[in-house]
């Protein structure tokens, strides 16, 4: 998977995430051609999202704890000028710090959330696309059978978007799991461990 920058929408992994979001939106909207980036009819797509589709998608991704899905749904939507409710905006703000991503992309999203007027006016993240990046770096690149060499940036596997969990699965929050382990067992597990310790001490 290639990447041509560390901002939003600058890697193949992110494009895969967008495709997954498009697919889920298409299922809910009963429109297999639904597309956030290249909508057939911009006003029609925004109207569907404003009428509840955005909230439905957000709720579905929340249920799966798919943090990248939540953030990229938000990013795609503000680019279209979707009107996002206060509670849904709060979800985006709360999810961003918990999402593993590059600092540049995180800063872009934070700026977007802070500056978005939420009145129908689209927000522009100003990330260079692949073709624009090739043109900008043209003097440092040369063509090959695999595209433009010298374009890919080094990637951190921990910061690329994760695929959407399958139906019935939930994305594990590694940091939260780590805190649980530090605290030790709770509830029945804690009582069982105490009983084992007591039995061992009295033996």
Q: What does this protein look like?
A:
The protein has helices at residues 12-29, 42-63, 67-80, 86-95, 103-115, 130-136, 174-183, 187-202; strands spanning 142-144, 147-149. With 203 residues, the protein is mostly helical. Strands 1-2 form a two-stranded antiparallel sheet. Strand 1 (142-144) and strand 2 (147-149) form a beta hairpin. Residues 177-186 have a biased composition (Basic and acidic residues). Residues 155-203 are annotated as: Disordered.
User: Taking strands numbered 1, 2, ... along the chain, how are they ordered across the largest sheet?
Assistant: 1-2
Regions with pLDDT < 50 over 5+ consecutive residues? 141-149
Number of alpha- plus pi-helical segments: 8
Distance between the termini: 59 Å
Encode the helix/strand succession as letters: HHHHHHEEHH
Outline the biggest β-sheet: 2 strands, antiparallel
What is the typical, i.e. mean, pLDDT? 85
Describe the secondary structure blueprint for this structure.
Blueprint: H1 12-29, H2 42-63, H3 67-80, H4 86-95, H5 103-115, H6 130-136, E1 142-144, E2 147-149, H7 174-183, H8 187-202
Antiparallel strand pairs: 1-2
Helix pairs in contact: 1-2, 1-3, 2-3, 3-4
